[in-house]
Amino acid sequence: MSGAVVVYQNRLMQRFQDAKATDPKSARTLAEIDCRNSWIFRRMVARGVFVETDEGRFYMDEDAASRFVKRRWRVALIFLAVVIVLFAIWQTFI
Predict the structure, then answer these.
(1) What is the pLDDT of residues 81-94, one digit of tens each?
(2) What's the CA gap between 50 and 60, in Å, rounded?
């Protein structure tokens, strides 16, 4: 995942927090949050970070957002560990 995607994801989550759209009662339209229905947004909806209400409004599930960020860190650390191991193996053959 590119750094730009992570920055955009963080910006989306911050917009929902700033709008206090963190429960079904305070759900907002995407226009109210100044958000577009991008593939990144849809992916976060699929992961449960953003939840759509019956009225077509969205709110951020803070627990799901926290799990999403933790998972993102875990994936990044695993990737880094694999790169380090591969580099170490490569160095033994030089």
Answers:
(1) 999 999 988 888 87
(2) 4
Give dist(CA 2, CA 4) in Å, integer: 5
Q: At what angle do helices 3-18 and 39-46 cross, to 10 degrees?
A: 70
pTM for this structure? 0.79
HEC readout, the chain:
CCHHHHHHHHHHHHHHHHCCCCCHHHCECHHHHCCCCCHHHHHHHHCCCEEECCCCCEEECHHHHHHHHHHHHHHHHHHHHHHHHHHHHHHHCC
